[in-house]
Amino acid sequence: MSLASEQSQTAPRRSILKYLLTFSIVTTLGGVLTPIISYLWPPMRQTTVQGSRVRVASLKELEAAGGLITAVEGQAIVLTYSQNSVKAFSAICTHLGCIVQWESAGKYIQCPCHDGRFNAQTGAVISGPPPAPLPPRETVVDGDDVFVII
């Protein structure tokens, strides 16, 4: 075999290996840089205008359950119904930031982390370690729809 034919066979092999190495480097860099770029420039969330109403439940649904937990614009909200009145509070416990739950049997709001309990009509602390009441949210009832004001 001549030297010229040997060189012609190694040239395509080298170009293929060079291509594969370049491809591997580019895909590795893409895999590493994509999460970093996503972290540095998070996507913009579509938000509603401050002071606008967001429908969260129907009045019939709330009456039947007595209370429920929902999310409004990425914020956890607890809704309660008692004596023809609808109340809404932040569903974030003021003790350590856990999401509270509606306790239908006892008609109170309970934090599952450390058994903090809140009054369903006022958001005041009934028992447990929470240092402050749940912050209230403004609600509007329009027909059968319950809205929270953001």
Question: How would you describe this protein?
Answer:
By secondary structure, this protein is an alpha+beta fold. It folds into 2 domains: 1-43; 53-149, Rieske [2Fe-2S] iron-sulphur domain (Rieske Iron-sulfur Protein), CATH 2.102.10.10. It has 2 helices and 11 strands, in the order H-E-H-E-E-E-E-E-E-E-E-E-E. The strands form 3 sheets. It has a 4-stranded antiparallel beta sheet, with helices on one face. A hairpin with a 2-residue loop joins strand 2 and strand 3 (75-82). The model has no long low-confidence stretch (mean pLDDT 86).
Structural class: alpha+beta
Low-confidence segments, ≥5 residues, pLDDT <50?
none
Helix content: 25-40%
Number of strands: 11
Could you tell me the mean pLDDT? 86
Alpha-carbon distance between the two ends: 82 Å
The name of the CATH superfamily of the largest domain reads: Rieske [2Fe-2S] iron-sulphur domain
Question: What string, H for helix and E for strand, traces the elements in order?
Answer: HEHEEEEEEEEEE
The biggest beta sheet reads:
4 strands, antiparallel
- CATH class designation of the largest domain: Mainly Beta
Which strand order does the major sheet show?
2-3-4-9
The shape, in one word, is elongated
Count of helical regions = 2
Q: Please tell me the CATH architecture of the largest domain by its name.
A: 3-layer Sandwich
Q: How many structural domains can be distinguished in the coordinates?
A: 2
Whole-angstrom Rg: 29 Å
What is the third-level CATH name, the topology of the largest domain?
Rieske Iron-sulfur Protein
Bin the strand percentage: 25-35%
